[in-house]
Amino acid sequence: MGIEASVTAAIGDVAASDQAAVELAVSYARAIDEGAELHKIGPLLLSALEALLLTPRARAAALKKGTDDKPAANPLDELRERRARRDGAPAVDTTAS
Q: Could you tell me which residues belong to the region Disordered (predicted)?
């Protein structure tokens, strides 16, 4: 399956704001097909695909974001806060001063 078919299958019609990223991914894939050095073009293609949420890791990261586009909280920080609430102690500030 080509890049265009993958994009269509994943997101349907491409929004104008995503068109440049799709074209970039297509050009990287074409360069690889034409014999470009994979170790040079491969990471660029992967970045373009991640920007379009066409990799499992990119989709998982997008799902972990909250509705306000903030990343999910650090699990260790959440655990510290729960422990502090349970023990009645104030939460520990782990930032260096």
A: 62-97
- Whether residue 2 contacts residue 30, with contact meaning beta carbons closer than 8 Å, is answered with no
Report the alpha-carbon distance of residue 37 to residue 44 in Å, rounded: 11
**Residue 72 contacts residue 83 (beta carbons within 8 Å):** no
CB contact at 8 A, 72 and 64: yes
User: Which sequence spans correspond to the domains of the chain?
Assistant: 3-87
What is the pTM assigned to this prediction? Answer: 0.56
Distances (CA, A) of 82 to 44, 51, 64, 86, 87: 41, 34, 20, 6, 9
Please give the chain's pLDDT, 97 residues, in tens. 677 777 777 777 777 778 888 888 889 988 998 999 989 999 999 998 888 888 888 888 887 765 455 556 677 777 778 888 887 766 566 666 5
